[in-house]
Design brief:
The chain is mainly alpha-helical. It has eleven helices and no strands.
């Protein structure tokens, strides 16, 4: 940073003249009593480097990215619409052209949505999961030779989830805590706290009720051969009910978190 004397040669040798060539992180250390490189020169190169790298943030000053909400992880409101499109396409195509065309249409729509999200650089994981689910449902419909078979995997999966979550409450390991951990990241301190377990029991039983309601309604419509109404019920009882369940999980997680924090502060104060 020193001027290295006077004249043009001194300027070309100074690092200040080569700020634009700096490509790696730079740390400037200034001695308080340095008589050769004065503080003003150090401040100048810091300012010049900052201006040369704008609009980039200086290293270590960028704010951490906010955690995605559950809705954002599913692709936002647009993602919810995308998830329902293959079902609507299946029902419409089945009514107009028959089962074979309906299967191809549903899979084609799901694949097109995945490609669209990839091109638009949107979250692709929900679309790929939806494509896989539609492909499995389409395979079941093809094997059963019935349009309503398209909805069997949804019925089976909700029966399984209902049983799994109910068992988790009975063995004192409510799975709502696992859901909360996946969304927010938590430890296992809640296992030793009865009120926290009670909060998660309530949230888990709420999810059990949602899975049971889905299974019962969808199975009834399946048995009644009401494919159109089954499609409507599949969409209406899908993410809207899941969102309700996640709200209860959020309540349980926050109540437990506040309680555990208060207990931890009490322990530290007592030490």
């Amino acid at each position: 940073m020193a001027t290295y004397g006077a004249g043009r040669g001194a300027w070309t040798r100074s690092p200040i003249s080569r700020v634009d060539d700096i490509r790696t992180p730079l740390m400037v250390v200034q001695g308080g009593n340095d008589v050769r490189v004065v503080k003003a020169e150090s401040e100048r190169i810091v300012d010049d480097v900052y201006r040369a790298t704008a609009p980039h943030e200086p290293a270590g000053t960028a704010e951490p990215k906010a955690k995605q909400t559950p809705l954002e992880r599913m692709g936002g409101p647009t993602g919810l619409v995308y998830m329902g499109l293959p079902i609507v396409a299946f029902v419409v195509a089945n009514s107009a052209f028959g089962l074979a065309v309906a299967i191809g249409t549903a899979v084609g729509v799901a694949a097109a949505i995945a490609v669209l999200r990839l091109v638009r650089k949107e979250p692709v994981q929900p679309a790929l999961s939806g494509l896989f689910g539609v492909a499995v449902a389409a395979f079941v419909a093809w094997k059963t030779g019935s349009a309503k078979g398209f909805f069997l995997t949804g019925i089976w999966s909700n029966v399984a989830l209902c049983a799994l979550f109910l068992v988790s409450v009975l063995v004192r390991r409510p799975l709502a805590c696992v859901v909360w951990g996946a969304l927010n990241g938590t430890g296992t301190a809640w296992l030793k706290d009865k009120p926290s377990r009670r909060y998660y029991d309530i949230a888990t039983l709420t999810l059990v009720g949602i899975f049971a309601a889905r299974s019962a309604v969808w199975q009834w419509l399946y048995d009644e051969d009401r494919t159109g109404r089954l499609a409507v019920a599949r969409i209406a009882m899908g993410y809207p009910l899941l969102a309700l369940g996640l709200l209860v999980v959020l309540w349980a997680g926050r109540r437990s978190g506040k309680r555990l924090k208060a207990l931890s502060e009490q322990r530290h104060a007592a030490q």
